[in-house]
Amino acid sequence: MNESDESVQRLVRRAIGSMADTELKRDLWPQMQARLDEPPIRVPWWDWALAAAVVVCLCAFPAAIPAVLYQL
Amino acid sequence: MTETAVDILEQFAHGDAAAFEELFREYQGQVYGWIVRIVRDPAAAEDLTVETFWRIHRARSRFDPRCGFGPWARRIATNLAVGHLGARRTETQFSDDAPPARVRPLPPDPAVSADVRQKVAEAFGKLPAKLRAAATLAMIEETPYAEIGAALGISVGAVKSRVFRATRLLRKSLIGAGVEP
Fold it and tell me: How many Cα atoms occupy the beta-carbon half-sphere of A56 within 13 Å?
């Protein structure tokens, strides 16, 4: 690393202060508990049916794959 | 590691809820402290800390108690923090304009003008997330390269390379903004 790079690093250090306070101020366990208690996301059966229909269509008409990818 | 600590880690790996709570209470401060150094936003760091432990909880069956909980947690936390930086890349994280109420970085050098500080902050905010995380830890927080490498899952040489690339990009941006480093 040359002098010029070091001067950039010095400037960054002087311009942006280090985080003085990195201590956690409160217990996050209640938030964690709430997250753990969330019910798992359930995918409705019709979403699976729709996904299956798309796969079947793509297998039947492979030429449509680039058009579908373009739309994504 | 004491026998009790190993027991707790093994119980956690087998899905014991009490062991997970004990680990959470023991490590939440360390994980938060590491994340807040990278993202520099206490509110986001709290959310990412919970997200880190959520992922740890989901991946508990893959946890090897012999490898230690702290390094594993830090790796997951770092990945999440880098992802957060990537999602917020367009925003200026170090802006002096409207700092969140709870952000308390050390005051910057008063010899550096507000205009230069703003331009440095903007240049830093434009860095790609991976370079920015490495540069924040190395340049601003002065974290040892080995520690950064362990957290990012890369070698010390790769950390040096990222810091070097970040420095070059910063210099280019600063010169473009009329600041001569």
Answer: 6
Note the ipTM here: 0.75
CB atoms B171 and A16 under 8 Å: no
- Own/partner pairs, B58-61, CB within 8 angstroms, 24+ separation: B60/B12, B60/B13, B60/B15, B60/B20, B61/B13, B61/B15
B33 touches chain A (CB under 8 A): yes
CB pairs under 8 A between A and B: 108
Quote the number of domains for chain A.
1
Contact call for B109 and A14, based on CB within 8 A: yes
Answer yes or no: is B103 within a domain.
no
pLDDT tens for each residue of B127-177: 999 999 999 999 999 999 999 999 999 999 999 999 999 999 999 999 988
Residues of A in contact with B24 (CB under 8 A): 28-29, 32
Residue B70 and residue B121 in one domain: no
* B63 in contact with chain A, both atoms CB, cutoff 8 A: no
